[in-house]
Design goal:
about 260 residues; mainly alpha; two-stranded antiparallel sheet; 9 helices
């Protein structure tokens, strides 16, 4: 627990000033975090990928993370071109590798990982540049939901939510987490953004639920690869994806709702 708290304090000291500064500083930090998350994903394959494909995947990822960075449009624009380039660059080379060095399965796995991480971290950059209070509001939902779900499960949990994926999660904890995440996020919204309506309330509810589902999705990934954490980069917390699993799904969902 002590190691976990110290790590959290160090992360806050580093990331909060960058979040407040925004602009190039925050974007650069997001790029570094995206690269670390990419490393965690590709490390799941024990046999490894050809270095040239890892490098091309990294270039595709970074290009996607910073697409539309200048105008921060919520519409994908040039992002479509980068996605198409990514798919072609990662898939066509399969014909040049023999045996199992780089298969179509490997290519589709990398494409999926690059699109998930690239678009997710791209939304971080875009939404931060649009509004700091909005970005914090979106962060609060999964973070507070997780805290209340943990406390609710600890003190009131009786019925397992998804025992095969996450034995400690309970329905009681999930409901308490939902309530806590929605209430705290709405209080923040009223104070720093503006008045709320049914749309804002429903959005907060949906994002809290999706965040919990995202946590379970990543738990499924870890269970399939027989690992406890994606990495040990953050002492007491695991890796980048262990900390941002629910956050990624919340931001993706918000962008989807925003575009709709």
């Amino acid at each position: 627990m002590k190691k976990r708290i110290i790590s959290a304090i160090v992360m806050a000291i580093i990331l909060i000033p960058l979040l407040i500064l925004g602009g190039h500083f925050f974007a650069a930090a997001v790029g570094v975090i995206a690269a670390l998350a990419y490393k965690e994903i590709v490390n799941l394959k024990k046999e490894g990928y050809p270095n040239i494909m890892l490098f091309l995947g990294f270039l595709s990822l970074i290009s996607l993370v910073f697409s539309n960075y200048v105008n921060c449009s919520i519409y994908l624009g040039i992002t479509y071109q980068i996605i198409a380039f990514c798919i072609l660059v990662m898939l066509i080379p399969v014909i040049f590798f023999k045996d199992d060095a780089y298969t179509t399965k490997d290519a589709f796995y990398l494409i999926g990982a690059i699109l998930l991480l690239g678009i997710s971290f791209n939304t971080f950059v875009i939404l931060r540049n649009r509004s700091l209070p909005l970005f914090v509001y979106l962060l609060i939902i999964p973070m507070v939901t997780d805290i209340f779900a943990m406390l609710g499960g600890k003190f009131f949990g009786k019925h397992k939510l998804c025992p095969k994926l996450s034995p400690k999660k309970t329905w009681e904890g999930s409901i308490i987490g939902l309530a806590g995440g929605v209430i705290i996020s709405l209080i923040f919204y009223i104070i720093f953004i503006g008045s709320i309506n049914i749309t804002v309330v429903m959005t907060s509810i949906i994002l809290s639920i999706v965040g919990q589902m995202g946590d379970l999705v990543m738990s499924k990934v870890k269970r399939e690869h027989d690992i406890k954490d994606f990495s040990n980069l953050i002492p007491g917390h695991g890796g980048i994806l262990d900390r941002l699993d629910s956050v990624i799904f919340v931001f993706l969902t918000y962008m989807f709702l925003l575009i709709m």
